[in-house]
Amino acid sequence: MRGLSVGLILATIVGAAAFVVPPPSLPSRDFRIRLSAGGNEDCGTSLERRSALHNSLCQAMTLSMFMFGGATWISAPSQAMAAVGEGGLPAITEAFQRVIRGQREWNKVGKTIADREGKLADEEWVNTQIFLRNSYMVGEDMRRIVRDAEESKREKGTAIAKDFQRLTMDMDKPTKSKDFQGFIEAQKKGASYFQDFIDLLSDVPDEL
């Protein structure tokens, strides 16, 4: 797993130079995502005039649709990536990239909420609940990454993934009740799970 961990990190840093993949097209300006059931606002308009939190959530949730493709990779993993020989990234590298992106979005949304204490609208709390449900899927990528690792690392990684997924579900309560302090404390714990998982994979050999 040492070699695998190093490979994951290097592949992510250099964009997997051995497997050149064109970046996905970004959504057009009139690309629309409904953030809540029956909501009247969408990301296309909010990017210009809504709050920083709303914009961060729009970006994070739009990214999650590109990251997970509506979670179709769970039911049809063979379609989730092209074969390596056809220019696709190895599945484990794609999963690692999604974890890194998930960590970045988790921290971004957490900071935005922390900076807006007492100023969050009801709709923004609802949007945060949706973001948490999307974040749950990152735990599946964590499980995939360590599935074939050595026993100790597999057990630790799986435990982190399980704890993170449980946290995203538990965070629905403070988010639904608009408990700012409860949310912030849980968000920080989630950030520590991300870092623990990354640290678990960062066992670069001394000779490197």
Describe this structure in words.
Residues 1-18 form the signal peptide. With 208 residues, the chain is an all-alpha fold. Helix 8 packs antiparallel against helix 10 (180-201). It has one domain (2-20, 52-71, 86-201): Four Helix Bundle (Hemerythrin (Met), subunit A). Helix content is 65%, strand content 0%.
- Return residue spans where pLDDT drops below 50 for at least 5 consecutive residues: 9-50, 62-86, 204-208
Number of structural domains? 1
C-alpha geometry: elongated
**Strand portion:** under 5%
Element pattern in H and E: HHHHHHHHHH
Could you write a compact summary of the structure shown?
The chain is mainly alpha-helical and 208 residues long.
List keywords for this structure.
disordered C terminus, mainly alpha, PsbQ-like_dom_sf, 208 residues, signal, thylakoid, 65% helix, Four Helix Bundle (Hemerythrin (Met), subunit A)
Fold topology:
Elements (H helix, E strand, L loop, with lengths): L1 H12 L29 H7 L2 H17 L3 H4 L15 H25 L6 H14 L2 H9 L4 H20 L1 H5 L3 H22 L7
